[in-house]
Fold this protein.
Amino acid sequence: MSLMTEITIFVLAAFVGFEVISKVPTTLHTPLMSQTNAIHGIVMLGGLIVIGYANDPLEYIIGTIAIVFGTINIVGGFLVTDRMLGMFSRKPKPKADTDGEGGS
Amino acid sequence: MIAEAVLKPGGDAATALYIVSFSLFIFGVRRGTHPTTAKQGNLIAAVGMVIAVATTLLLDGIGNWGLIVLGLAIGSAVGVIASTRVQMTAMPQMVALYNGVGGGAVALIGWSEIRHGIGEIDSGVISSIPLDTLIPVLFAAVVGSVSFWGSNIAFAKLQDLIPTRPLAVPGQQVINAVLLLGIIAACVCIAVNNDDPSQAVFIGILVAAALLGNLVVLPIGGADMPVVISLLNAFTGLSAAAAGFALDNVALIVAGTLVGSSGTILTMEMATAMNRSVANVLFAGFGGAPSGGGAATEERPHTSIGAQDAAIKLAYADSVVIVPGYGLAVAQAQHAVKEVADELEKRGVTVSFAIHPVAGRMPGHMNVLLAEADVPYEQLREMEDINPELPRTDVAVVVGANDVTNPAAKTDPDSPIAGMPIIEVSEAQQVIVIKRSLSPGFAGIDNDLFYEPNTSMLFSDAKAAATEIAAEIQNL
């Protein structure tokens, strides 16, 4: 890929990011931040690529730690977002349930 | 190991799969903007990630499978355990930590790329590292390292491992500026000598960037931490995109850039909600020298009440507004407070929750916590929505919130939080503040609300107080 092609992709992706994300209600900011945080865990791919041509102990160590870090970022990020959003999707219990139990 | 089923890096098949994967990221984030589809959106993005990882594993030239499997296994185990165990209240620091490891991975990949380039020069494969690889690598390494260390400091502050108060070194700005200039100079030095780049200089750059990450975040107070984490999230995204430039990987470029622009939007929105600019957050230590600091230490008269009196005030009110803050989150009081609201509703009191945009430690954090306690959506009210109603509200109950209710934001132009939008609880007929002490909040400034004649202080842990009040209301 030529440098100019990459820069074109970069600029377009930046605009896509601005457009897609400027419509989020405040309530979803924390989950969204967490989700985008998980997405940048994609750097893990870089770890997979560089460890392929690692050829001394230090490079093995650097590459492995990079993969560990990237995987934590991905797996932890998506799971934690899922947990947060799970809180929202739970349906509020009908009022009648709680009213009956008080029995003052 | 995987014999023939290899994809050519940059080839049509690999690129097509990457296009599918980043389309899923964009689509997933888009779905993440609506409460009903957000969970599905996260899942879609996760599927995109699985495709991206699988594609990369099939690329020609991927090797050292033992280490790859080891890395994936350790990373997955840590990620799963940490995410399933973390308390909802500790969510912001968890995001900080995940962001940090992402930045760390970028910096390490940069280091590995430099070593690879030097190795190729030494063995005569290439005569110099091309600048369109070298410059992104340097950028990725610097920003990744700043992000790693900055995020760790943010984590440590939110986890109370180090004081949340701003910690400033004399001449801070000068030191930071010198460090930054030094880093840039060293990068230029490596780029100019791209036929013989020095690994020692590169390591020096990593260390200087680490120092810079520490020094930039340490002077920032706890109240500004969400803005900082969000900013570092954007930084990590950009550094991932830079790594994509270096590795000619389109998935990295698109996904990293997407996060970079989203993080920028979020950061600006958070800063706006606190009426601060991002530059202000970064370069002016919050609450470092509050103008009213001298007066704050003096004893000032305040009214203090017990749970029983609070219960009576609440039970005989027509309308009650509950203002939850981080104290509620720390004390895990969301369920107890929900119980108080239920008891009051049973007696016909109108109850609503007033949510400040930055209540908790991140925008939307309080909504997550209250949703966990099954507080219905209709009871959650935004700040702009509830403020006009407060003068007609009988009792406002502030549970573990502080700075977001401080009238000084409106009345004292010299206050560090001057102009920050607040929930105007002092407008309500009566105010009950549940708080452990009169001590200042994250912004480190005194709250005049506590000393107003219509304010009663209930000194207690938020959970204990709410449980007691609920019981007292039941007994009335």
Q: What stands out?
A: The radius of gyration of chain B is 26 Å.
